[in-house]
Design brief:
By secondary structure, the protein is mainly alpha-helical. It has 13 helices and eight strands. The strands form three sheets. The chain has a three-stranded antiparallel β-sheet. The model has no long low-confidence stretch (mean pLDDT 97). It binds glycine (GLY). The site of glycine has 5 residues, from loops.
């Protein structure tokens, strides 16, 4: 790796020590930053927006890197805010894995907090309750969202929510959580992962029979394209699956996706928003890049293969060389520039700083430093 990780971590800590206290003055969990201010989630969904767990997660990670009351107290404050969303309930969806593993799950794991354990199990029960077993034996899927038009929708992102179910089985001894995760993962392998290792974003199933109905384009360029963050969710998600199951087939799927992803890293180490976007378009997504770096690093540990470590380092060098705002008084309060939430929706953020990109960047730095508490497990 060209860059010195200790120097990068020192810059990250210096910046966040300055900007995190600004976030603590707000009632909302930051979603993004712009013009020196933290910005709340889109669509007025407050702390029910699916990304809300990444901020407390990043605070827990920063506290692991640099034990510091600034980070710990912000982690505690915003983890507590997340528990209020159980009462609101109506906006919660399959993304309770992202939301609660990184907030309550982290508090339980790192501080042994008993109530945080129950809050994490509460989230796991909500996720299991979204499972549709369909009329086909040993089949089914976890429903992503709740609209009547979307009863048959599942999305590749859910692979990152499944570790919550495995954790609940470990915690309680109840095999139902892991059984649901197993069936959903088998459905994802069959219907989302293509022969070349690329992945679909949204698949619609018949909610009665579980039969494949059609693919939707989702947040990528189009139907049949290859949205890079979806590829990153699949890469890290199937790697986490293999870590949870120890199954050789799960690992083989993770490696197939990883090889495809590695072949699509640009020469400058950056990642296009969609690997099949038009060649004359410059649209990057550094959230995908940082998330994939984490997936590659875990896959390198699992397989012992240097090529995955090299892919992660190429991604991190690309981010550090071209797309980090380390200036404590810079345009962004956060770290990464050029994060893109969705290819066709500029309302949720295009080429800007978004906190879940920063979360994965910090997670990757923790892994490089050897102090990642591994909040996904
Ligand atoms: N889970 C939606 C996204 O990755 O933006």
């Amino acid at each position: 790796m060209r860059n010195n990780i200790d120097e990068v971590i020192a810059k990250v800590a210096a910046k966040l020590r300055r900007t995190v206290p600004e976030a603590a003055k707000n009632r909302h969990v930051p979603y993004a930053s712009r013009a020196g201010k933290w910005i709340e989630s889109p669509w007025n969904l407050g702390n029910s927006w699916w990304t809300a767990g990444f901020w407390p997660g990043m605070m827990w990670l920063m506290n692991a890197l640099y034990p510091d009351e600034v980070f710990r107290s912000e982690a505690l404050r915003t983890t507590e805010l997340m528990t209020e969303e159980f009462r609101v309930y109506r906006h919660l969806n399959h993304d309770v894995g992202f939301m609660y593993l990184l907030s309550c799950g982290a508090k339980h794991k790192l501080e042994g907090d008993e109530q945080a354990k129950w809050d994490t199990l509460h989230a796991a029960s909500l996720l299991m309750g979204r499972f549709n077993p369909t009329s086909t034996p040993r089949a089914g899927f976890i429903k992503s969202w709740d609209g009547r038009e979307q009863l048959g929708y599942a999305i590749i992102d859910c692979m990152m929510n499944l570790p919550l179910l495995f954790r609940a089985t470990r915690e309680t001894g109840d095999p139902r959580f892991a059984a649901v995760a197993r069936i959903h993962a088998d459905t994802a392998r069959k219907h989302f992962v293509r022969e070349d290792g690329s992945c679909r974003h949204i698949v619609e199933f018949d909610p009665e029979t579980g039969d494949f109905v059609r693919e939707h384009g989702g947040q990528g360029f189009s139907v049949g394209s290859s949205w890079s963050r979806g590829q990153a969710w699949a890469l890290y998600g199937f790697t986490l699956l293999a870590m949870n199951t120890g199954d050789a087939g799960d690992l083989a799927t993770a490696e197939k996706i990883a090889r495809y992803f590695a072949a699509n890293i640009r020469a400058d180490g950056l990642i296009d928003c969609d690997f099949r976007q038009p060649e004359d378009v410059c649209r990057l997504d550094n959230i995908a890049s940082a998330c994939a770096a984490c997936g590659f690093l875990e896959l390198a540990k699992l397989t012992g293969k240097a090529e995955y470590r090299a892919a992660a380092e190429k991604l991190l060098d690309g981010l550090i060389d071209h797309c980090c705002d380390f200036d404590p008084a810079g345009e962004y309060c956060g770290l990464l520039t050029h994060c893109t939430a969705a290819y066709h929706d500029d309302n949720v953020g295009t080429h800007t700083n978004i906190t879940y990109g920063d979360y994965f960047f910090v997670e990757a730095l923790c892994k490089m430093k050897g102090c990642d508490p591994m909040l996904w497990m």
